[in-house]
Amino acid sequence: MRNLLRSRRGSAAFATVIALVPLVGAVALGGEAGSWYVTRLHAQNAADAAAYAGALRLACTIAGATCDTSVDYQAKQFAAQNAFCNLGDTAYPGTNCATSLPSRISRTVQIDIGNYNADTFTAAGNGNAVRARVSQQQPAYLAAVLGLTTVNIPAQAIALVEKPSKVCGLALGPDPNGGGALKLGGNVSNNGSGCPLASDASVQFASTPSFNGSGWAVFGATGCSPASTCASPGVTHNYFMPPALDPLQGLNTASFNTRTGNTQSNATKVTCPATNPLTGLPYPNGSKCYDLPPNDNGGAYNGNFSWSGQDYVTFTAPGTYFFYNASVNITGATVTGVGVNIVLLGNSSLTINGGNINLSALENNTTYPALNGVLIDDQTSANVNIGGNGVIKLAGAMYFPKADVSFGGTVQPNNTTCSQVIAKTLTMTGSAYLSTDGCVPATIAYTQIVALVQ
After folding, report:
1. How far apart are CA 57 and CA 74, in angstroms?
2. Are 352 and 394 part of one and the same domain?
3. Are 144 and 201 in a shared domain?
């Protein structure tokens, strides 16, 4: 018996068993913590996808484009595709959310719109960013020895809508039958200070365009055709961008859009001066000169304005020129005006086919500030053609939100280098000049980029 009591056989095994009890507990607790880590990764994926998808939809809203769903719905749809939904809210396309979760497990999704600045997000109901917060609450098992009964595993992501590039040609869409809202047709050559051409719908190439200078780009929101040209247009391109901003959409509901009436049926014919102030030379035999004063205070020009070869038309003073149910057809005429805002209403139409056109926008319109920097505000749906031979200098923003516009020839700015076009559909042909340099900032359209910032 004495020898048995003195025996040390098995003591190491016994000590090992005693030591393994906390070790096994620690390993098991580590395993449970590892499962939390995996859940956290899944939650972060869901938050990232939700914030990014929501910001894409916010970009659509900011641009004033037609958006098929709300920011909240779009964000929660992508959270659902990553298996995170609120209780009872699981019916989304592509959802991976279970209709019921195991006992004591719950998941939540919260989407907020707000402003992101200096690394801080402030929820505001509108703004430039989307925040997605998701979480999973589950019971603690081995961690209960540490006093934990439940564990909440959260994740957060913030996506910001940025506007990095000034656009000098923007097609608002939708796409017409048989083509993109932005068409680059024939042997188009774009001149000016390089800037993006963008479509809030799709892009279509009739041939490979050429771009003079650097900084040009072609962007679309819903695709491009044909694939052979789209793949390599010679400039930066992206056909699945968020819609570009329409800075002039407020003009669509401006109070002066109700303007009607008859100021006079045509321009006032006047005796031509002894010399042409543009050239310093006498007018050619047979020349006819016309003056148009602004009509800011009431009424509108209407009737047919058809000016050709030896017609010389002067917009006599800075101000706003309203046309209602007027047909303006310029073919080879000389038309000048400094500091003018031209507004087309009713069933008006506009065609510029060659000539010597020298018009610049009024940049400080005290009567109608919404027109600052806008050379042409066309609220009609009639097709617009601007181009042809000659020198066509159009300085300012040209806005055709309801019209199909063909823009070509040699179109150049005057006084400033600003020459930009926003239209329902825009077909570029010939050797057009476009630039955002010198434009009134409020008239400039911007591309948008969505980026995860947190």
Report:
1. 7
2. yes
3. no
* 150 shares its domain with 197: no
Do 190 and 156 fall within a single domain?
no
Which distant-in-sequence residues (6+ apart) come within 8 Å of 108 by Cβ? 86, 133, 134, 135, 137
User: Does any domain span residue 1?
Assistant: no
Residue 246 CB: number of other CB atoms within 10 A? 22
Pair 220, 180: CB distance under 8 Å: yes
Sorting pLDDT into bands at 50, 70 and 90, what band is 348? very high
Residue 18 binned pLDDT confidence (cut-offs 50, 70, 90): low
Q: What is the pLDDT of residue 147?
A: 54
Do 70 and 178 lie in one domain? The reply is no
| Sign of the dihedral through C-alpha 242, 246, 252, 255 | positive
Q: What is the per-residue pLDDT across 112-141, written as a single tens digit (0 to 9) for each?
A: 999 999 899 999 988 999 999 999 988 875
| Number of domains composing the chain | 2
